[in-house]
Amino acid sequence: MPDQSVRGEDRPVILAVGFSRLKEVFRVIVPSYAAQADVHIVDRGFDDALAEIRRYQQTRGVDAVVAAGSNGAFLRRHLALPVILVTLTGFDVLNALATARRSARRIALISHGTTHPELIEFKQHFGLELEHYAYETAADAERRVSALAGRGVGAIIGPGLVTDLAEQAGLAGIFVYSRASVEQALDSAIEISRIGRIEAARRERLDTILQQLEEGVVAVDMDERVQSFNPAMARLLGVDADAVEGRRLSQVASQLALHDTLAHGVTELGGVQRIGNRTVVTNRIPIREQGVQTGAVVTVQDSATIQRVDRSLRSTNKPRQFAARYELDGIIGESQPLREARTLAAQYAATDTTVLILGESGTGKELLAQGIHNASARRGHAFVALNCGAFPESLLESELFGFEEGAFTGSRRGGKPGLFESAHTGTIFLDEIGEMPLTLQTRLLRVLQEHEVIRLGATQPTPVDVRVIAATHRDLAAAVAEGAFRQDLYYRINILRLDVPPLRERLDDLPALARSIAGRALARQGRTGAMPAMLEQVMPYCGAYHWPGNIRELENLIERLAIFAPGFESGPMDQQRLERLVPELFSDATPPRPAVDDIDAIHRVLAQCGGNRSAACRQLGISRSTLWRRLSGAS
């Protein structure tokens, strides 16, 4: 681990590699760079220098290396670090030639790597006797110096290795690199280090992001060699991320090959492929830097993950109106028919099977549907209700299944999801399903069978996970016989059947229902109470009424009474005024009193009056002694 204290204020670490004369130049100028970089001189060459640099890498960290000549070329070949070479400039050559001219007439220049053609023109122009040669290795340089000495050359210009060899041969050796050239190399090393650190920080941030992604990501260069390979992709392919770096992606996973993307620079989004036993969604995107393509990236996401996120988004973003308010335990009434319906509904809630609720209008079918939803595993998700008889066919279709932008004239920009999509992972309640047009029954059947919807104007289906609860007041079996309802749809929805009793079959629940409805009606008016006197007065007539509108009709009647309740809380209302207020209860000429010989009716009235015999006598129109006699005779 590098010693961070050596780096000072996070300055770049530069190794200045040079021996002999270059080392002396480094010693002179390195102190002036103390504020910009942490520069260390390595007085070694070739293999020894390489070993020293690697020790620095392990203990302190190294950003760049500065070297010259064959030593620099050697290090460049063996290090995965920026190696900046001290370059030979025209000023360096002129300055060295002037110095050499004072020592000898015949001069030679030996540089590393290549010769400099411009020196030929320079030599001819100034009439210099200048020989120019290049060398690759130390042995090459030694042979060249020895040959030049044998031919009478008096001075040799070159880097440190050459000048040392010249002096050993008894010649004048002139060091070619100026202080300015060395400073320029150090400046370049510091700038390259700064850019390298910025790039390393950017790459580290990118790698950190890639490490956290659940989506598999692979980035390659123009040769399709892997440069980045995140853990999610390694898990998906079952490979070691470190083992694939530098290999061609097509060799690692042929299904994810990027040949076409690299060759043509075309972006491919939303591809569906199989990798092993998984279905995945892929995106292939070219990487461009400053307008030039430098590679490509492929991202892979498991389709199961996409579906899970899709379900979460659709359920999280459900509108507030798509919520069920009622619980099964909150449905008022203890009559035998209602208890049986409530028990059956609780059993149905434990399953995900389609339910068909049958009952007259106003019996509370939606309350039971909401109760089933809230007692089920879907209770935390949307409950979407739609009355199939309340919309024209064209509007009902778009409401149920949604539409794409431009699907029809006047369609909303961007399209709109249908109620099936809105109910995803929840429940959809199709009230009055018997009123649905035959053409839409066909589309509904497909949704129930395939668990997917196709919006109007779309070609691709959208998967949906929805529990369907349907309801109707119609005799669907008769509608099937008449050709008004599809038989296959009837069988599809008539799996779990729930019959809701009409109010006339659960008259024992009337008092409790009336009190609850009265309390809510008064609360809406900002008042409290439950109109006990008025309800006691009207209850005998309610018990004799047929209630064609069921609970909905009872709610309307109690609401009407609540408006006139002030002033009648402690006593009954005038009979004539009561008859004018609720005339439907007085449609018969004779007041609706139970026959006193009907002992069941007597018990029912007693129950309605809460066991108060005086009140029961008033409703029955008999004296307390008659009531006692009837009850005694029954026992």
* Main sheet record: 5 strands, antiparallel
Strand content: 15-25%
Strand order of the largest sheet: 10-9-13-12-11
Q: Count of DSSP E strands?
A: 22
> Uncertain runs with pLDDT below 50, 5 residues or more?
1-8, 589-596
Give me the secondary-structure category: alpha/beta
Query: Helical amount among residues, as a percent range?
Result: 40-55%
Secondary structure tally, helices: 27
Q: How big is the Rg? A: 48 Å
Mean pLDDT: 84
Q: Any idea what the shape is?
A: rod-shaped
Gap between N and C termini:
100 Å
Key features of this structure:
alpha/beta; 5-stranded antiparallel beta sheet
Structural account:
With 635 residues, the protein is α/β, with parallel strands linked by helices. Strands 10-9-13-12-11 form a 5-stranded antiparallel sheet. Strands 15-18-21-14-22 form a 5-stranded parallel sheet. The N terminus is likely disordered. 45% of the residues lie in helices and 18% in strands. The termini are far apart. Helix 6 packs across helix 7, helix 14 packs across helix 15 and helix 21 packs across helix 23. The protein is built from 27 helices and 22 strands. It comes from Spiribacter roseus. Keywords: ATP-binding, DNA-binding, Nucleotide-binding, Transcription, Transcription regulation. Pfam families: AAA_lid_14, HTH_8, PAS, PrpR_N, Sigma54_activat.
Short description:
The chain has 635 residues and is α/β, with parallel strands linked by helices. It contains 27 helices and 22 strands.
Question: What's the SSE blueprint?
Answer:
Blueprint (H helix, E strand, L loop, with lengths): L12 E5 L2 H10 L8 E5 L3 H14 L4 E4 L1 H10 L4 E3 L4 H12 L4 E7 L5 H9 L2 E7 L2 H13 L4 E4 L1 H9 L3 E4 L3 H34 L3 E6 L4 E4 L1 H7 L3 H4 L4 H4 L6 H6 L3 E8 L2 E12 L2 E11 H14 L19 H14 L5 E4 L6 H10 L8 E5 L5 H9 E2 L12 E2 L1 H4 L4 E5 L6 H13 L1 E2 L8 E2 L3 E6 L3 H6 L5 H7 L2 E4 L10 H15 L7 H13 L5 H14 L11 H7 L17 H10 L4 H8 L3 H11 L1
Parallel strand pairs: 1-2, 1-3, 3-4, 5-6, 5-7, 7-8, 14-21, 14-22, 15-18, 18-21
Antiparallel strand pairs: 9-10, 9-13, 11-12, 12-13, 16-17, 19-20
Helix pairs in contact: 6-7, 14-15, 21-22, 21-23, 25-26
